[in-house]
Amino acid sequence: MNEFVEIYTDGACKGNPGVGGWGAWFHYNGHEKSIFGGEENTTNNRMEMTAVIKALESLRRPSQVKLYTDSSYVQKGMTEWLAGWKAKHWKTATKKPVKNDDLWKQLDALASQHQIEWLWVRGHDGNEGNERADALANAGVEHILLKR
Description:
Elements: E1 4-15, E2 18-28, E3 31-42, H1 44-57, E4 64-69, H2 72-87, H3 101-111, E5 115-120, H4 128-147
Parallel strand pairs: 1-4, 4-5
Antiparallel strand pairs: 1-2, 2-3
Helix pairs in contact: 1-3
């Protein structure tokens, strides 16, 4: 595993909850790939997480990944909060159920198959990968809206 895959992910929501979209842009060894989708009734955080889940699901083999997200919720969830939630049987420090635990469990299982560096980037700040992921997430929203 000496080569790494760069993945930029983003989620979007028109209303929160509302119509949502997710997108991911991959860069690997001179190649690019884009994926996107959406859901009718969701939240921005769920779309941010779904973007990462769909991106990791599309990897064909265990990989070294540099995963860029503008969601501190996703980045901190995976690097700071997850271990505590698992140790507390999916409860927060205040003993409340972890929100989106269905997606956190899915993301945890997928992440365990790869070596991932979780990198936060400022959104809407001219970063090419983040701008592409944002455009894909918005395309996911538009796709749902057009189906109505």
